[in-house]
Amino acid sequence: MAHIDKTKPVLVTGATGYVAGWLVKRLLEDGITVHAAVRDPEKEEKVHHLNGIAENSPGTIKYFRSDLLDEGSYAEAMQGCELVFHTASPFTSEFDDPKKELVDPGVKGTKNVLQQANKTEGVKRVVLTSSCAAIYTDAIEVEKTPDNKLTEDMWNTTASLDYQPYSYSKTLAEKKAWEINRAQENWDLITINPSLVMGPPLNPRATTSESFSLLKQLGDGTFKMGAPKLGIGLVDVRDVAEAHYQAGFTPSAKGRYITSAHNTNFVKLGEALEPKYGDSYPVPTKALPKWLLLLIGPYVNKNLSRQFIRNNVNKEWRADNSKIKNDLNIKFRPMQETMEDSFQVLIDNNII
After folding, report:
1. Could you report the per-residue pLDDT of 218-249, keeping only the tens digit for each?
2. Per residue in 173-187, pLDDT tens?
3. CB atoms within 10 A of CB 79
4. What is the C-alpha to C-alpha distance for residues 57 and 78, in angstroms, rounded to an integer?
5. Is residue 4 part of a domain?
6. Judging by DSSP bridges, how do beta strands 287-288 and 196-198 pair with one another?
7. CATH, residue 301
8. Residues 6 or more apart from 138 whose CB is under 8 A from it?
9. In Å, what is the CA distance from 305 to each residue of 97, 157, 207, 215, 230?
10. What range defines the domain where residue 41 resides?
11. Domain count for the chain
12. Residue closest to 349 by CA, chosen among 197, 235, 207, 199
């Protein structure tokens, strides 16, 4: 059981990220010194939101230039830290070479940070941002589980470089983390495994995140004929940040945590927006028929392969989130609040 001293600095890798921003805010408000490891600390537009939060919080932020692929580049940032949050990882569906752009950075980055933890005196705990993608690839897999729901003891065995390489990269990266963790005795490892993350970004101008392109499509007419009834899990970015925080500072926390609030699908996401935005925006409230998707899907979006459509459309997604509720006392926000707060940010910033 790791008891973390809050007077010591805490490292957050990928500090300018979507989840990391809310985590940094939570740490600063708690009066903690945050060592923010970022690729480009000089890029004002990447860090100004964090500086703004730091100015109004009792905590302090210090930036360190680090790169996932450079060995030893986290040494300085980790100095003096008992707690490390490793949130940095590639998340994109726009790639030409999945091994080079997803798998290598994911696995090598994780290896880099965790081997640095081995070399840095005093590190007691690492909290890794993993994903439900390390647990499953397609919603159809839920039907094959003992209780028809995903749990923390399941691992993704179906993704590959050719099929859902993002999920494959998350699986390999998390497995690498547990392997490095088991080979030493100084620090314990906890993983946070979120489903699809939505909610307001602290830096809307930098929202390159995948969830935002989906959100944008819910409002820009892409789905005005209907949305694919794709089974997914959904969780609020603020709840994911809180989950990281609690995983870091709850001494008894251990293992993996499915961090997912709602078992849902794309059509329900549209329905959640409908009451407030339905009159002004073409939010989808009906499902596109599966046969039509099989016909047009692959032409509309390269990620909508026929295999993916067969395995996810009209399939119910379910995960058991009782462990995180019990161990870390996480209370999840209602879906409508998450969806409305996210959508409003896009409107306020003229993104839709």
Report:
1. 999 988 889 999 999 999 999 999 999 999 99
2. 999 999 999 999 999
3. 14
4. 22
5. no
6. unpaired
7. 3.40.50.720
8. 158, 164, 308, 311, 312, 315
9. 17, 19, 26, 20, 13
10. 10-348
11. 1
12. 207
Q: What is the C-alpha separation between 315 and 307, in angstroms, rounded?
A: 13
Under 8 Å between Cβ of 140 and 312: yes
Q: And the tokens for 54? A: 């730091």
Token duo for residue 345: 């940010």
Q: Kindly give, in sequence order, each residue whose CB lies less than 8 Å from that of residue 253, ignoring residues fewer than 6 positions away.
A: 190, 246, 247, 327, 328
CB of 67 within 8 A of CB of 105? no
200 in a structural domain: yes
Asked whether the whole model's pTM tops 0.85, one would answer yes
137 found inside a domain: yes
Task: Identify the residue whose tokens are 């980055």.
Answer: 109
Which tokens go with 129? 């941002």
Q: Considering the domain boundaries, does residue 315 fall inside one?
A: yes
DSSP string, 34-96: EEEEES-TT-HHHHHHHHHHHHTSSSEEEEEE--TTSTTTTHHHHTT-SEEEE------S--S
Contacts of 273 (CB under 8 A, 6+ apart): 218, 219, 281, 283, 339, 340, 343
The letter for the amino acid at 215 is: L
